[in-house]
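We close this part of the discussion by returning to an individual protein. The amino acid sequence and the backbone structure tokens for this protein are reproduced below:
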Amino acid sequence: MTTETLTISDWIQLIIAVSTLFAVIIALSSGMGFWQWLKRPKIKISFDRESDRCFRWAIRSTDNIQDEGQREDIKRYYFRLKVSNSGGLAKNLKVRVEIYNKEWKKVERFEPSTLRWVGGQESNDLTRGESEYINFLSQVADPARLTNNLRIEIYNFESRGIAWDRPLACYNYQIIIYGENINPKVYIAQFIPDESEGSPGSILIKENE
């Protein structure tokens, strides 16, 4: 077959084959066996606004708002990230977040912090084909009642000089997932407030290239 007769489909298959061969060579040269490479975890983080697992609301009978004290009957919108594994067993996964303003400058009173899985734990294992959700942000539905209307749902809410409750605004986030047997993967997320007061904002997330 000459290059003149290659179709687009042929070129795609050729590129996939070369990429796979290159990945295998790297894995073998780094000391990882072929079967170990083949069974490696394959982790992906995503957000689907239409999924009740990713986006929902709830009313908290009491809610302790940082710097503002305890309030009653607070309605919150919850934004969760879906973490999926299409490869082998992924062990001890943790998701860490860093926050920036819309100009990508680090905000004051924060430090990289792990997020909380929906089961309440800081780390989690995922088997092949398994998905789980991790809490990311929550937004107060009635902004007139409070100043700090946007919360980063971190794992550790112990007082240590950081601010997880913040004014409603546009923020950028760096999200990194770690694990015992995976290389860290970096994602970039953005929260954009809705123009209509009290309506939930939107989240955009993509893998950092």
Summary: The mean pLDDT is 89.
